[in-house]
Amino acid sequence: MIKKQHSIITGGSSGIGKATAKLLASLGNNITIISRDINKLEAAKQEIKSVCISPEQKVLALAADVSDRLSIESAIFTAIEQISPPDILITSAGIAHPDYFQNLSIDVFEQTMAVNYFGTLYCIKAVLPVMEKRKKGHIVMLSSGAGLMGIYGYSAYSSSKFAIRGLAESLRGELKLLGINLSLVYPPDTDTPQLEQENKTKPPETKAITATAKTWTAEAVGQEIIKGIKRNSFMITPGSEMSILAKIHSLAFPLINQYFDQTVAKVRKNL
Ligand SMILES: NC(=O)c1ccc[n+]([C@@H]2O[C@H](COP(=O)([O-])OP(=O)(O)OC[C@H]3O[C@@H](n4cnc5c(N)ncnc54)[C@H](OP(=O)(O)O)[C@@H]3O)[C@@H](O)[C@H]2O)c1
């Protein structure tokens, strides 16, 4: 089903985006990856090319900032022109700056919302007319466990991932009527440059709260994303923790908060 399709993947030069791009390329997809750093883009393009199964497959790497509407629109229009309208759009570009709320400037909140939320919205708006015209397409949005429940130390990031979830849940029914499928991914902690970066500023309380969760590989999350696309799942929840959480988070939230507060108190005793 995925063979010979065109997938556009923002954040495709690293982590979950790159792993998913490679898996799609290994299934015969034409691939466009979009992010900012040209060196990372070029290196990822070579990696993606190396797993293609046919010399006819196209791999395009375009530099653009998803938080700049004109920049990302222009990249998407170039991809459409040079390859074809996209069958799949995956919005994986994202940033995370965990820290105590008092340490997070308003700039961080604005930047996180600009990249994670508006960077997702701009891409969807840019592909919608061609998907609508063709009455087909699949949009895959990346949220997070922090988009299901607010987590200590993640005030900027959680808000942006909740916003993505709100957008996805509202859009699902509207897009369905246009023949366009939508999936929302809640990846667990995944071993990527983003997680490495997060660990530098994560408060100790946040580290303790997230310590029990297993860290996934980007490839394993990518495989779950492909499975979710093939099954046309609205919610893609890699692993049992995310699957359970996605179903019962509201009911379980008082208990989860109790656990969070106890963990925070334990850590603070030793600070
Ligand atoms: N890793 C985890 O534990 C985890 C857990 C839950 C959810 N997620 C979500 O999964 C997605 C992928 O995360 P990851 O861990 O794979 O991160 P990553 O390895 O750091 O990759 C992020 C990608 O986004 C690109 N990017 C960042 N800002 C951008 C911008 N303004 N414009 C265009 N591209 C931009 C980066 O390239 P440039 O910097 O060169 O632009 C890079 O290609 C994110 O949305 C993240 O929030 C990750």
TrEMBL record:
The keyword Secreted does not apply. Pathway: Lipid metabolism; sphingolipid metabolism; Sphingolipid metabolism. PANTHER family: 3-KETODIHYDROSPHINGOSINE REDUCTASE (PTHR43550:SF3). The keyword ATP-binding does not apply. It comes from Aphanothece hegewaldii CCALA 016. Belongs to the short-chain dehydrogenases/reductases (SDR) family. One of its GO terms (molecular function) is nucleotide binding. It is found in: Endoplasmic reticulum. Keywords: Endoplasmic reticulum, Lipid metabolism, NADP, Nucleotide-binding, Oxidoreductase, Sphingolipid metabolism. GO terms for biological process: 3-keto-sphinganine metabolic process; sphingolipid biosynthetic process. Its EC number is 1.1.1.102. Its main location: endoplasmic reticulum. GO terms for cellular component: membrane. This is 3-dehydrosphinganine reductase. PROSITE patterns: ADH_SHORT.
